[in-house]
């Protein structure tokens, strides 16, 4: 063990390696409900070459490696289940390139969402990326690695679909570039017209390598952004509302949410509709298209547009702080959610299940669904707030989450960023050939089984 | 159960049903108007139940105070007809529920009511409200539930208003200065229409402003501004108070510009129209209203109701008029708000 510590210090310098208990305590947990587990070391590299040497060391010594962004996935994906070395990527935070005309950026593997947002606002105000509703310190690489979503997911798909090139340190220590950067200096394509190797790293939750650079597509940042909220008390109407709105092909983002508190939100389902424009005329045109699309529901009195002006400053925030506020309703700031990717038409059944789980486990709930890729799917977040000081409440949340995952799998959905136990449930249900392929790929890429072990294990 | 004091005989004998003939949102001839109001009085189906946009105008037009609008609301609810979409209706019922969160200031004989509108409480400051700013009551426990008439939920109103009146009774205030026309209208018109006793003297805030400005006359500097005035829907419940706004503007040295939609044909701000029916009628009414304002060349658009100001303010600003609430205009005349800073 002493040798490993010395070797790490030799690679990174003393300051960026630690095995002090107070730091290991911090790196043993995330803000969710899973039990912590201590790593043996924590390191903070600054270059791909340092990452490479760390991986080579770990491979040689058969020591687990856990790559970490900002540890905000809430499902324990960076809890070192088998100890080993946590690789905190936050020092690799440079924005290496913005290609304005081709609309992409290249960032290092620890670059935060907030850093890219601020940089674009200042240097390229007409460009933006798909910002998730997560704290600004969360990282771009972690987000794409777990198929995150963001403000532009309704239009352009999962944030991982916006990747246009990757640099990864493989579990064997080689540095590999995927897509157009494997052929030249430009980061415009993750695969096409090559075999798309990005699929070997996106969705694998850090079990197939450490992402050191990400090419990310950027999109037009229009001058104005607006929001409307359509409200209905009939969950069965929500899929049709989404269908009509996505048919317009002009909306930025769309989320559906419901919660029992505060009272003004009780018993209703809220479809928050965002749209953008470069002029007020464009905004008004889009607003009318949105209202016209749903006029029939207003006429039948089954739905209507609520007054949004007082809520607008909050609704137009990016990222929104509503999640953090929800987490503190029962005091103690705990928040956990299960977010299966599913069909929009399943919304009513998920909504019913959430209310049922909240009742059964006596929990405060919030339901949110984000529409993905124009309605091909949605992410339905089954969310519970809890008090961290209340162990019994945390246990109830855990039980409710397990049941939610079981339900999602019964419904044919894909649990999003599943914890290690949920991963097992998924693999058990998976087609055996697919499961076998996952195993083979993993074995091929990580013959020493050092990368984030305990995750995606068959 | 509280019942509306409506006398169908008055409608039967009415020589000219102005309540409907003067309506700006439903067109009908004299005979049809007579038939429709009679149908309603008999409890039969009427196009009024479907077409009324809840502008409150008929409450002003009826010369007998027979409460045609409240009758429409009663019948709508009785027949299960929603004015606005059902989830919007219920949202307003839920969000205005009493939850024990009302704020009550240091009260003596007189209290200031800002209903459930914190912006009104913020405005009630400065020399005009000296000694009174801390006498505020704010919150659902003291809210006039008048907004539910827009949603034809008279049952909510009849359930909550007696509680509100009881809450005021317990406070023991002698006078309540109502900063929102809807409150004053509720306590002086709607409560009477349902035979409810009001345990205090409601004071119309513009009467209060007049009185205070007279007391502060030495500090008053004529504004020498041209203004138009946006009359709110709830002013229709208290039409006699419409003249007070004009008197106040005159006292401030604000020249009220003549325009088409000014008095008993005032137009709705469009907020409630949008909520209940969509943007088409709302946009059309707002366009006519704002064009009418802009045509006068006025510098300011003076609002009485904060909800109207929130809805219409940004749009009148785009048309080149500065939106301002009446209270702020008074403060401007006292030099508390610099001219042009609104």
Based on the model shown, name its key terms:
heterodimer; A: 458 residues; alpha+beta; Uridine Diphospho-n-acetylenolpyruvylglucosamine Reductase, domain 3; Vanillyl-alcohol Oxidase, Chain A, domain 3; 2 domains; eight-stranded antiparallel β-sheet; five-stranded antiparallel β-sheet; 14 helices; 19 strands; 33% helix; globular; B: 342 residues; alpha/beta; Rossmann fold; 3 domains; five-stranded mixed β-sheet; four-stranded parallel β-sheet
What is the average per-residue confidence, as pLDDT of chain A, rounded to a whole number?
Answer: 95
The global form of chain B is: globular
| Oligomeric state of the chains present here | heterodimer
Fraction of residues of chain B in helices?
A: 40-55%
Most extensive interface, residues per chain? A-B, 25 and 21 residues
Element-level helix/strand string of chain B: HHHHHHHEEHEHEHEHEHEHHEHEH
- Structural class of chain A comes to alpha+beta
Number of individual domains of chain B: 3
Structural class of chain B: alpha/beta
- Reading side by side through the largest sheet of chain B, how are the strands ordered? 1-3-2-4-5
Helix content of chain A: 25-40%
- Major sheet description of chain B: 5 strands, mixed
Question: How many separate helices of chain B?
Answer: 16
Q: Termini distance of chain A?
A: 29 Å
> How much strand of chain B?
5-15%
Mean pLDDT of chain B: 95
CATH architecture descriptor text of the largest domain in chain A:
2-Layer Sandwich
Tally the beta strands of chain A.
19
Largest sheet of chain A: 8 strands, antiparallel
